[in-house]
Amino acid sequence: MKSYFSFFFSVVSMTCLYGSTVLGADKTLGLYLTLMQDRVKTADQSQYKHNAELIGTKWTDGKYSKAIDINGKGNTDFVITKEAATLKIEGSD
What's the farthest any 2 CA atoms get from each other in the chain? Predict the structure, then answer.
């Protein structure tokens, strides 16, 4: 489950970078976390308000600024939110 969420968070992070310019207009954005260094809890800026908590993450240099490092090794670093239907990723079989 934790590795699934790490993958999910990576996908959401990429979506957030795109979605940050159209946040008010994009109703399909399921999670938008504004990460601030030295804060463990972060508030979801999307319409769903899925607040999150960072566990074991480390700050690193990102492409444009700072970023959190979630490597998925050893299940020691992840982002926790409450389970919600709007966060489920559905695919075709």
Answer: 41
Name the CA radius of gyration of the chain, rounded: 13
pTM more than 0.85: no
Supply 20's token pair.
């940050």
Residue 93 lies in a domain: no
Q: For residues 6 and 70, which has the higher predicted lDDT (pLDDT)?
A: 70
Q: How many CB atoms lie within 10 A of CB 54?
A: 19
Range of the domain at 27: 2-87
In degrees and rounded to multiples of 5, residue 54 shows phi and psi of -90, 125
Within a domain: residue 47? Answer: yes
Looking at this protein, which amino acid is placed at residue 78?
A: F
